[in-house]
């Protein structure tokens, strides 16, 4: 009797697992990201944890559920990152930082260690581009620097560093960094992958 | 009609206005109804609807025009096969470089018989391209929604047409092949999932990473990788050497070499003796001396000596392969050399470690980034005054001289200590204290602990940039360990030679003893049965190989003990003291001296590398070494993970791990090479002991190969081999290999030149532009830019720049 109920319970669990997997379709996301099925399921757990009452477990009807920026940047992995707001914004479709589960998975896939350098470079450029004009102009650089040093440098120092950066990396002479400049500079950097 | 179609296509691809699109949409809707009549799939409709909703696709307009054309053509009821052909032709025309092009099929049912072979080929190409698209989907910087939609559509397309591609006789085989490929892909996917789940200690390392940054975590990742290598080595030695001898060889006590001699029997079980790897431990499968030289043992006819030899060679070969493979993989990832031209840019964009999740570490990281910026600014602001370069140079020379003195001193100390231990051994080990017995190992470990600190102090004289100073420090520690190891080996060689001298004497004694035995028995009884003497009583020849094995095992054990004890005292005890004494101490222990310790990444990595070197050296003479090392690494992992989380604080100067990765691999490779040298030397030059080991009785250890070739392989094989090993053949072969290496090196150098040119060129263009602009004004600058660009060969940057300009 006990055995029978155990088997029954297990089959129910397995069925639920199947349903669950079918619902969030990890195999599809497997092809679109760098994660394994187990990792995608784990990610869903984390996503759900952020807002248990908002996030549905059933994805068969393709619900349009987005978590706001404020919830996501409080994740322990992102909390200490000075660029967390920009990171979340650059992966969101509306540019305001509201992520659906697909975008959530996408974000972590690009940030993971399995993503290739070129892909990371593209998204890094988006992250550092604060005013979203496809160029890293001086204001973007200033903001980056201030976030990095928590505004410990004096304005003259900030000015100097930004000038030097543009001087070093700008190849077409327009006083701002386009994606080509950025990619040229970052592809030589030995420290970039992390 | 086709020509009109072409023209329209071209017009459409020039991204015509929206209005045209509108017009096309309406007839499409009409077409849809008609196509439904032609047995269209629901999918195709869904796809079209989706396509219309997708606004981000540049070539969406082209696909729509194609759809429109096609629908018009089908209205006119052309053959369905032809539409397919047009499909593929169109694809070719538009140059399938843009993978965003969606292949339109209009939902036609493709009858395979109606397609000619070349149409089939094109269809196959289309399917293959879709497959490639699916595989490359991860790396695309598209938003997730777009990726998912593309994925679904491509998968549907592939499924639809893959089945249809197999035609006629080959159809079944093709379908079978397709099914097997799908099953294989699924299997690969599951295997990948399984493999990721199998990686040990992943969560532990991730936790450490978030607390301490990537450089500390890189040590643990390195440790885990070493563990993997040692597992394989353990598998080889255990499975192919130790187990066969234990199971199928002659048991303990059956022959002299497998028995504890009568004189030592009393103390053979003592803990002190066992700890020293004597007694029963010495006469077991753990060491070389136990193995019998019988050519084939057991009912499997297992060739023991051959296996022993090949496993020894195999462990070295496998290690080489793995290290070089890892180096090559790392080399691809690192950038092109050490450029100082992007100093500030790199500091700005790559200095943040995205893996940090701990507030304390984050604070430290912020502080270190700020400091590094301030330093860089200072360097930039200061004019390059080399005041007193002579003083700096003198100080550096002095520092190097001091370091050399240290190294020489430590080498001599070790040599001295080893000779002393030999004297002690002659006196008999019982007469000396524990220290005197273990002097060699203790001295080596202590030197390894204190000399690096000394080097650190000396390096303050040199006044180098911190990163350069770190590299010098690592280099010196490396030289220290290497010197110590080799001195140790030289001292060992002396002992080996001593033992060999002894051997000659003992051989003589044994023959005398046997003769006397024989004489005495014959004199007693003329028909005496053969004399049976207990193996423990037979006089034994000295076994230098076992001695070497024992020395290495002792060295490794003492090294391990020293590491653990320094860990417990230096890190744990210190942390406890600082924590609890702080309440009742006059100055702040936590902020000032001694405070909590930091994790010394480079020191630990070097220790690990040298340990591995010792394993490689000694594994031939003591098959138990890989097993010991596996155990040791396992314990180390848990102990150090605990110690790091419990007693260490994040480093103040947070160095990134990346550049050093290949540096450590390079050191490992050098150590591997240097540690296999002594083993190879002893195998090739010194004759094996006559009384112990699997090669006893042979003139040289590698004779076992020769023997195997002669007796186990068919006759023609040995003939072929003897021809092949003829110097007349071997020398030209070596010459050929040298030439090949030379060619490849030159080719690589020449391939690097245009690469350097490509990298330098845009910069040069910019510099030239600045120069010309300063003299001639804006017009001249553009001219200057153009001329420098034409000088360069086509580069990505150049195209972009000229394109941008135009």
From TrEMBL, chain A:
Q: Which Pfam families match?
A: EF-hand_7
Domain (EF-hand): give its ranges: 116-151, 157-192
Query: Which compartments is it annotated to reside in?
Result: Cell membrane, Sarcolemma; Cell projection, Cilium, Photoreceptor outer segment; Cell projection, Stereocilium; Cytoplasm
Matching PANTHER family: CALCIUM AND INTEGRIN BINDING FAMILY MEMBER 2, CALCIUM AND INTEGRIN-BINDING FAMILY MEMBER 2
Give UniProt keywords alphabetically.
Calcium, Cell membrane, Cell projection, Cytoplasm, Magnesium, Membrane, Metal-binding, Repeat
| Chief location | membrane
Would you tell me the Gene Ontology cellular component terms? cytoplasm; photoreceptor inner segment; photoreceptor outer segment; sarcolemma; stereocilium
Question: Origin, by domain of life?
Answer: Eukaryota
Organism annotation: Lates calcarifer
Point out the signal peptide segment. Answer: none
Alphabetically, which GO biological process terms does the record hold? calcium ion homeostasis
Q: Which GO terms describe its molecular function?
A: calcium ion binding; magnesium ion binding
Q: Does the keyword Calcium apply?
A: yes
Q: Which PROSITE patterns match?
A: EF_HAND_1, EF_HAND_2
**InterPro entries attached here?**
CIBP (IPR051433), EF-hand-dom_pair (IPR011992), EF_Hand_1_Ca_BS (IPR018247), EF_hand_dom (IPR002048)
Q: What is this protein called?
A: Calcium and integrin-binding family member 2
TrEMBL record, chain B:
GO cellular component terms, alphabetically, are:
plasma membrane
**UniProt region (Disordered), positions on chain:** 1-120, 769-791
Q: Which GO terms describe its biological process?
A: detection of mechanical stimulus involved in sensory perception of sound; vestibular reflex
Q: What Gene Ontology terms describe what this protein does at the molecular function level?
A: mechanosensitive monoatomic ion channel activity
Q: Which InterPro entries match?
A: TMC, TMC_dom
* Pfam families associated with the record: TMC
Compositionally biased intervals (Basic residues):
1-11, 58-71
Membrane topology of this protein: Multi-pass membrane protein
Domain TMC positions: 543-658
Annotated transmembrane regions: 225-243, 277-293, 305-324, 397-418, 439-461, 473-493, 663-684, 729-749
Q: Which PANTHER family match?
A: TRANSMEMBRANE CHANNEL-LIKE PROTEIN 1, TRANSMEMBRANE CHANNEL-RELATED
Name under which the protein is recorded: Transmembrane channel-like protein
Source organism of this protein record: Lates calcarifer (Barramundi)
Q: What is the lineage of its organism?
A: Eukaryota, Metazoa, Chordata, Craniata, Vertebrata
Chain's gene name: TMC1
């Amino acid at each position: 009797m006990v055995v029978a109920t155990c088997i029954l319970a297990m089959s129910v669990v397995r069925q639920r697992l199947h349903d669950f997997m079918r619902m969030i379709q990890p195999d599809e996301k497997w092809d679109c990201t760098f994660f394994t099925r187990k990792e995608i399921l784990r990610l869903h757990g984390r996503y759900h944890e952020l807002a248990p009452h908002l996030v549905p477990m059933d994805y068969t009807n393709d619900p349009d559920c987005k978590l706001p920026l404020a919830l996501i940047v409080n994740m322990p992995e992102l909390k200490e990152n000075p660029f967390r707001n920009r990171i979340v914004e650059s992966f969101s479709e509306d540019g305001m930082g509201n992520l659906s589960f697909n975008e959530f998975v996408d974000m972590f896939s690009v940030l993971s260690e399995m993503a290739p350098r070129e892909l990371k470079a593209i998204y890094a450029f988006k992250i550092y581009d604060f005013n979203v004009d496809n160029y890293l102009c001086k204001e973007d650089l200033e903001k980056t620097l201030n976030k990095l040093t928590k505004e410990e440098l004096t304005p003259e120092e900030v000015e100097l560093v930004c000038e030097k950066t543009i001087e070093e990396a700008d190849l077409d002479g327009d006083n701002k960094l386009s994606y080509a400049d950025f990619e040229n500079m970052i592809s030589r950097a030995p420290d970039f992958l992390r | 009609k086709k020509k009109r179609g072409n023209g329209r296509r071209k017009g459409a691809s020039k991204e015509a206005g929206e209005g045209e699109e509108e017009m096309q949409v309406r007839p499409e809707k009409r077409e849809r109804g008609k196509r439904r009549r032609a047995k269209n799939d629901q999918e195709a409709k869904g796809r079209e609807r989706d396509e219309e909703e997708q606004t981000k696709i540049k070539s969406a307009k082209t696909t729509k025009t194609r759809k429109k054309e096609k629908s018009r053509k089908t209205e006119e009821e052309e053959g369905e096969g032809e539409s397919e052909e047009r499909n593929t032709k169109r694809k070719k025309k538009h140059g399938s470089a843009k993978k965003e092009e969606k292949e339109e099929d209009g939902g036609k049912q493709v009858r395979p018989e109606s397609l000619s072979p070349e149409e089939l080929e094109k269809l196959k190409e289309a399917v293959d391209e879709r497959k490639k698209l699916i595989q490359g989907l991860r790396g695309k910087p598209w938003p997730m929604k777009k990726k998912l939609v593309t994925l679904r559509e491509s998968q549907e397309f592939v499924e639809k047409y893959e089945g249809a591609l197999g035609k006629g006789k080959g159809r079944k085989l093709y379908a079978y092949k397709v099914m097997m490929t799908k099953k294989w892909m699924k299997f690969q996917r599951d295997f990948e999932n399984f493999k990721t789940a199998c990686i040990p200690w992943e969560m532990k390392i991730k936790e450490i990473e978030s607390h301490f940054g990537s450089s500390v975590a890189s040590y643990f990742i390195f440790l885990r990788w070493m563990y993997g290598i040692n597992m394989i080595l353990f598998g080889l030695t255990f499975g192919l050497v130790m187990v066969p001898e234990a199971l199928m060889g002659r048991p303990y006590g059956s022959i002299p070499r497998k028995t504890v001699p009568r004189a030592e029997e009393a103390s053979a079980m003592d803990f002190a003796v066992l700890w020293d790897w004597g007694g029963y431990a010495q006469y077991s499968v753990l060491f070389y001396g136990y193995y019998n030289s019988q050519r084939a043992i057991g009912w499997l006819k297992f060739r023991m000596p051959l296996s022993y030899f090949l496993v020894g060679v195999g462990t070295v070969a496998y290690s080489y392969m793995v290290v070089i493979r890892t180096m090559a993989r790392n080399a691809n990832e690192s950038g092109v050399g050490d450029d100082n031209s992007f100093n500030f840019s790199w500091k700005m964009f790559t200095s943040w470690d995205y893996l940090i999740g701990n507030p304390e570490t984050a604070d430290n990281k912020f502080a270190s980034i700020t400091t590094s910026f301030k330093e860089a600014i200072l360097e930039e602001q200061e004019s390059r005054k080399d005041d007193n370069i002579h003083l700096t140079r003198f100080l550096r020379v002095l520092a190097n001289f001091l370091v050399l003195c240290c190294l020489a001193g430590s080498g001599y100390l070790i040599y001295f200590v080893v000779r002393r231990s030999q004297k002690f051994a002659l006196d008999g080990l019982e007469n000396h204290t524990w220290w005197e017995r273990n002097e060699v190992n203790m001295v080596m470990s202590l030197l390894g602990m204190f000399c690096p600190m000394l080097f650190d102090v000396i390096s303050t004289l040199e006044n180098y940039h911190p990163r350069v100073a770190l590299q010098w420090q690592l280099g010196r520690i490396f030289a220290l360990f290497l010197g110590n190891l080799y001195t140790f080996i030289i001292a060992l060689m002396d002992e080996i030679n001593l033992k060999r001298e002894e051997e000659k004497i003992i051989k003589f004694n044994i023959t005398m003893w046997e003769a006397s035995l024989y004489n005495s028995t014959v004199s007693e009884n003329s028909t005496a049965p053969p004399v049976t003497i207990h193996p423990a009583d037979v006089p034994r020849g000295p076994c230098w190989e076992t001695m070497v094995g024992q020395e290495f095992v002792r060295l490794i054990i003492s090294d391990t003990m020293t590491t653990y004890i320094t860990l417990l005292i230096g890190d744990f005890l210190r942390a406890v003291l600082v924590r609890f004494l702080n309440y009742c101490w006059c100055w702040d222990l936590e902020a000032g001296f001694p405070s909590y310790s930091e994790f010394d990444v480079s020191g630990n990595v070097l220790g690990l590398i040298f340990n591995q070197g010792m394993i490689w050296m000694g594994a031939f003479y003591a098959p138990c070494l890989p097993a010991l090392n596996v155990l040791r690494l396992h314990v180390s992992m848990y102990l150090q993970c605990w110690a790091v989380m419990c007693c260490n604080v994040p480093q103040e100067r947070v160095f990134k791990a990346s550049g050093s990765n290949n540096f450590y691999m390079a050191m490992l490779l050098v150590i591997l090479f240097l540690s296999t040298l002594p083993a190879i030397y002893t195998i090739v030059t010194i004759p094996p002991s006559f009384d112990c080991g699997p090669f006893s009785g042979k003139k040289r250890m590698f004779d076992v190969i020769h023997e195997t070739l002669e007796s186990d392989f068919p006759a023609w094989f040995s003939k072929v081999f003897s021809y092949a090993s003829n110097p007349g053949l071997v020398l030209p072969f070596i010459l050929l290999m040298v030439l090949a290496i030379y060619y490849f090196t030159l080719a690589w150098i020449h391939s690097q030149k245009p690469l350097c040119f490509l990298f330098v060129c845009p910069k040069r263009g910019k510099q030239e532009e600045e120069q010309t602009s300063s003299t001639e004004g804006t017009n001249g600058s553009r001219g200057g830019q153009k001329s420098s660009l034409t000088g360069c060969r086509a580069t990505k940057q150049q195209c972009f720049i000229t394109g941008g300009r135009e």
